[in-house]
Amino acid sequence: MKLETGIVLMDMDTFLEGIVSCDRAESTGTYVGQINMIAASSFTGLNGAAWGYHLAKAESIADGSLQPLFTSERRDGTEIPVYSVEPLLDAWRRLFGTNEERRFPLLPGAHVRCAVKSNTVKGPTSVWCAIALAIAEDREKGSNLFIEDCGDSIPSDSDEARVAYLDQLMENIATSVIRCGDDSNVKYKEVFIGYKTEWVPEDYVGCDLTCAPYAVLAKKAVPAGKTADAMLEMTISQWEEAVGFKS
After folding, report:
1. Where are the domains of the chain?
2. Element (H, E) at 3
3. Which of 30, 34, 86, 215 could serve as 108's disulfide partner, Cβ 3.0–4.6 Å?
4. For residues 149 and 173, is the Cβ–Cβ distance under 8 A?
């Protein structure tokens, strides 16, 4: 998964500035550049695995040390934990790599289905993007769910008000997860959630991007001499060591 922003100077035209700012968001941080993103609905099915959660688990998820940010109540009255998504974002960064140090990037020019949303706007304003991953309680009949959101126009110029607005947004996204589950009679047992925001100065254009590619792993991402299911028992650091990367 990826949350990123891209900022460019307004010295071309509206369309070109939008293209470059989005491309910059794709190339900054976790590298998902040079692909054709095909927007898809936001579900990981019964055969899908979330990197950092099921495969090559983030350490704080594997050892249970990650503490909830808050809880959200399901329709049946169960309080489910809502965690920071950062350990999962970090795991994806360690799989795909960055522009400067690429590891297993998506094939350049590939048509890749993604749970994706983006927004482009002229400054001065804030841009923000958010993502959530909800884990189904019964994976035999329920899909995991991605929620993506993005925008600008935070109704204040103060840092405190922006943070308060986005913190409330996190609770709203968690509520939307519960409601989507209710619509399909799916119970989610936990949610991972987070956002990124950046100020776009005057005379600049900003793009915010939230995406989760539905990817097939590179063959060499499977440690030599092992089958893919071995990664179900590995942490992300153990996986890095097994494939020859420095943590």
Report:
1. 2-243
2. strand 2-9
3. 34
4. yes
Burial 49-63 (b: 16+ CB within 10 A, else e): bbbbbbbbbbbbbbe
DSSP letter for each residue of 49-81 = --BTTTBSB-HHHHSS-PPPSEEEE-TTS-EEE
C-alpha dist (Å) from residue 134 to 34, 147, 175: 28, 8, 11
Report yes or no: 122 and 50 within 8 Å, Cβ to Cβ: no
> What is the pLDDT averaged over residues 182-204?
95
Give the span between the Cα atoms of 130 and 242, in whole angstroms: 32
Q: What is the pLDDT averaged over residues 169-184? A: 96
Query: What is the value of pTM for the model shown?
Result: 0.95
- The catalytic residue among 4, 26, 148, 240 is 148
* CATH number for region 2-243: 3.50.20.10
* Residue (of 185, 231, 244) closest to 53 by Cα position: 231
Question: What band does 157 get if pLDDT is binned at 50, 70 and 90?
Answer: low
CA separation for the pair 198, 166 (Å, rounded): 12
Q: Are 36 and 116 in contact (CB under 8 A)?
A: no
Whole-angstrom distance, CA of residue 189 vs CA of residue 143: 12
> Taken in order 153, 193, 178, 74, is the CA torsion positive or negative?
negative
- Tokens 């974002």 locate to 89
Q: Model confidence at 113, in pLDDT bands (50, 70, 90)?
A: very high
The verdict on whether 100 is a catalytic residue reads no
Q: Give the H/E segment covering residue 242.
A: helix 236-243
CA distance 201 to 54: 40
Alpha-carbon distance of 186 to 61, in angstroms, equals: 22
